[in-house]
Every structure is written in C-alpha cells, then in structure tokens.
Amino acid sequence: MTASWTVSQMPDCTDKTVLITGANSGLGFEATKAFASNGATVIMACRSTERGRRAAIEIRDSIADTGATLNVRQCDLASLESIDAFTTGVERDYDRIDILCNNAGVMAIPRQETEDGFEKQLGVNHLGHFALTGKLLDLLLENDSPSRIVTHSSGAHEMGEIDFDDLHRERSYGKWEAYGQSKLANLLFAYELQRRLEAANVTDTLSVACHPGYAATNLQYRGPEEAGSRLRLGLMKAINAIVGQSAAKGSLPLLYAATARDVQGGDYYGPDGVGNMRGGPEQQSSSEASYDRQAAAKLWERSEELTGTTFTFVLD
User: Fold this and answer.
1) CB of 161 within 8 A of CB of 177?
2) CA atoms of 174 and 196, how far apart (whole Å)
3) DSSP per residue over 239-292, as a string?
4) How far is C-alpha 248 from the chain's CA centre?
5) Is residue 179 flagged as an active site residue?
6) Fold classified for 12-213+252-303
7) Which helix (H) or strand (E) holds 208?
8) pLDDT in tens, 53-62
9) What's the N-to-C CA distance of the chain in angstroms?
10) CA nearest 258: which of 62, 15, 34?
11) 0.85 cut: is pTM over it?
12) In Å, how far from its chain's centre is CA 219?
C-alpha cells in the first residue's frame, strides 16, 4: 500500500456484484464509476432514481465498454419501509453480493427526524445502514468467493460521543455533535460486525471501515442550504476549493478497503497526508472511543430494537 495507489491498481471486478448507497453523487458516484470501469455489476442505491439514472448515463458515457451493468434502484435510508422494499427487490433479483459499500450520508444539518422518528443524521448514517446490512447479510454470506462490507466514517468521529440517554438528541441538539455521534456509530458498528462474524466462524466475509479525509463534495453544502444560510454556503464553497481534495481522490480509501488484497477484517483506511485530510489510502487507527466493545455491544442492541433488524450469521 502506497500513497501512489490509484484506481488503475484495482483488481478486475468482472463477475463482481457491488452495492453502493448514495451512488449518484460525490464519493458514491466516483466509486460507482471506478467499479464499473473495472467491469463490475453495480447496484446503485439512490434516494432519487431520477438523479441515479442521470448519474448512470454520465458514467456509461465516460467509460469504455467494460461489460459493466449499472442498476439504479430507489432506497431512502431515512425510511425503514423503503429499505425493506429495496432489500426485498435485491434479494429477488440477485443471488449474491460481493461488496456492500455503506457510503451515503448527511452532514451537519438542522435537526430533523426520519420517517421512523430517528434523529436524521443518526438515522441515515448509521441506523439505515445497520438495517440495510442486516437484511442483505445472507447475500453476502451465500457466496462462493470472499465478500466485504465497507462502512464510510469520517475524521469527525473523533469528536463524537454516543449519548445513550438522548440518542436522538431531543433534549440538546448540535448539528456537528450529532454528526460526530453518527460517524462514531459507523465505526462501532463496523468493528462490532467484524467481531460477530469472527465469533460465528465466518472467515470469507469481512467488515472494514474507511474515511475520505476532506473531499470536496455536495455533502458540505446540504447543511447551509437547509439552514438557508447563503453566507455559510459561500464560505463552505470557498473552503472546499482551497482545502478539499477531489471526490475521485476522496473515494480511494473506500475503493482500497473494498478491493485490495491485503485488507483484513476490522481495518480502517484513510488518506495518508497531513492531518489525514488528503493523499493516498493507508491503514490507520481510529479514536479510542471507536474501539469500546461495551459501547459497541450496547449500540448494536439499541440499533436492533430501533430498526427491528437482527443479523443471522449462520445459514441454514
């Protein structure tokens, strides 16, 4: 693994089925493009199928004929009903998934709730992906070749704290505190999932995590737009232009975690530059709180209760 690692070093993905949430924009768009360029079948899980179809057309027009298939499907991670409908359709039409990329997310938005009453950042970034992964687990385990589950976190997890007494931040809400909590939850989930796979003697399915550093995407704009702050929106655009690396560069840790041959279960990848904000993918350590097994087990239990999703690690 070196700072010069690029998509050109990705293994051939022909005959691989990849599912990416948030596939129509930003990091998800770039990851979808990279997988398709390497011949994969990509299930593009998008909140808006219209935007998903436009993205798929753009990707097809920009890559050579690799035999890739892009399948756009509607999935709103802020709705357990939508997740259930989406996973039911995927299970009907596919007999396996090789790579699941839990990528979609929202960042630093005014307090909102999902359709099911969850604080939206926790609901979309963590609980939605928890339910999605649990419902698709059989397709990852029922596989003749190794499979991976990659969960996208953020350096912002370091400021996160799981408030089990006010998980949905009903008593006290700060948009960045809630975002940090959701990104810490991503890591607690990814690591706990790997531990549970190992406890069930599942060796061919790995759970790993990553973060993009500072990648300039539309994710940074949603909070100011929803708050109606033109000043903050302009400031964020300026910061993105000066500090951020491209979405294509930001997607490299995700792509490395999903495909590189030296990846191990429980690994965490991010950019190797100053402050881990830019650069090529490397293995890193996350915060001390992210390795708290007691907190991870408690969050897992709460996530099962809230989503009604249980994970079955042993197949019939």
Assistant:
1) yes
2) 32
3) HHHHHPBPHHHHTHHHHHHHH-TT--TT-EEEE-SGGGSSSSEEE----GGGG-
4) 15
5) yes
6) Rossmann fold (3.40.50)
7) strand 205-210
8) 999 999 999 9
9) 38
10) 34
11) yes
12) 13
Q: Tell whether the torsion through CA atoms of 35, 28, 191 and 288 is positive or negative.
A: positive
> Which residues 6+ apart lie within 8 Å of 238 measured at CB?
none
The domain limits of the chain are 12-213+252-303
Q: Residue 83 is which amino acid? A: I
Residue 69 in tokens: 């298939």
For residue range 76-129, what is the model confidence (pLDDT) as tens digits? 999 999 999 999 999 999 999 999 999 999 999 999 999 999 999 999 999 999
DSSP state of 119: B
Token duo for residue 247:
């979405």
- Spatial separation of the C-alpha atoms in residues 185 and 300, rounded to whole Å: 9
CA separation for the pair 30, 36 (Å, rounded) = 10
| Per-residue pLDDT reduced to its tens digit, 197-249 | 999 999 999 999 999 998 766 664 455 556 666 665 455 545 555 456 889 99
- Tally Cβ neighbours within 10 Å of residue 277: 17
Neighbours of 314 (CB within 10 A): 8
- Which among 94, 173, 179, 191 is annotated as catalytic? 179
